[in-house]
Amino acid sequence: MQHTVPSGLPNHWIFRVRHVPLDPPGDLVVAVHPQSYFQLQAGPAQILSLPTSAERAEALIPYLLEAFIVGDADRGASWAPWSWATDDQEMATALEVKLREHGIPEELCTVSICTPAEKEIIGEAWSSLVGTLMKVLGKDARTKKASQQIQPGDDSKCHECKKSGSVLTEALKKCAACAKAWYCSQDCQNKNWKSHKPTCLANRPASNRAATASSSRNIGSFQDMINYHTTVAHTVPEARGLAKSLNLSLPTSMDTFEGTGKPIRRLVVTGKDTSENMELLFGPSWSNHLKTQLDEARFNVLLNPPRGSPSYAMNSRLDNGAPSWSPRPAGDDEKQKIVEVREMQSKIRERVGNGRSPSRDDMREILMSFGAAWDQKAEVYTLALNTMDQGVAPLE
């Protein structure tokens, strides 16, 4: 963790949890860097509906871990917060207790309360996010046919493929955790999990809600994964050999743990980012938590951000001492995504020129040029911007 972010601004973040009437309903976690207005989001989740502050804090922790501790390839380990604050005093108090119980670094176990100015900033960020969500999702919610909706507890049809139980050769099987959903196969249950999850967590026995909310994000397995990386991997000859080929030293305890960003990036740049090698370094549960980070690290490397880009600046320390680059070639889907990013970068350059950062007005005009599909381009815009030369100095 660093006192400052790559731009030199204080590495202090503010966050809040609020309910949004999505379909199905859920709570979103939003974190904002108040000096730059950079935002992170996680969710939806079932947090605020839990009966006690301790249970709400327990359910929130995995989402904070996902956003800050695990991070992603673009931000790198240096963007883990040095300090943070929230606008909910009760949540802050409960979080401090739970963070210490989970062995989170002591620097992050102090959760302060937002200043009036910070409350205004996060309130503005939240209003903007909700407005966008309602604009994007509201139309879909209004036009969804009632016949396509299956209510929790309906045991007449599969909640994923919608097949009636009367036409199936085998009886529908209910979700063992909540008994509110029925499926014709394990495959349908797996496909339906993302939409069923909020209902499932909300309808499990009250005594298990916090634990199930936490386990749904695999917080226990996350800790198992970190424990494996810091205490087991260095004892495995194959893992030691792999680390040596990456010019890395494996940690031998939490005191020497430097995050997941560097080893993952080293695997990608050397073309050794296989499931087998990830398991050697992070143990059998790695895919539950690091698959997205691995995919993002790989795509970042394929884009090969130039000097002066935020991504180059944030990854410069991770690449210091790295072996020669020899990443695996891009697949067809990756090639298509690269084309989308390059096209977006061309649009940005046309508006602001080379080596300059677009303003909020520039961003709005660029995204609005895509018409009704603008919201689908927001992620591509962010990726394009982070991998363009904007005169950002590398981290020392």
TrEMBL record:
<feature type="domain" description="MYND-type">
    <location>
        <begin position="158"/>
        <end position="200"/>
    </location>
</feature>
<keyword id="KW-0863">Zinc-finger</keyword>
<dbReference type="InterPro" id="IPR024119">
    <property type="entry name" value="TF_DEAF-1"/>
</dbReference>
<keyword id="KW-0862">Zinc</keyword>
<keyword id="KW-0479">Metal-binding</keyword>
<dbReference type="InterPro" id="IPR002893">
    <property type="entry name" value="Znf_MYND"/>
</dbReference>
<dbReference type="Pfam" id="PF01753">
    <property type="entry name" value="zf-MYND"/>
</dbReference>
<feature type="region of interest" description="Disordered">
    <location>
        <begin position="312"/>
        <end position="335"/>
    </location>
</feature>
<protein>
    <recommendedName>
        <fullName>MYND-type domain-containing protein</fullName>
    </recommendedName>
</protein>
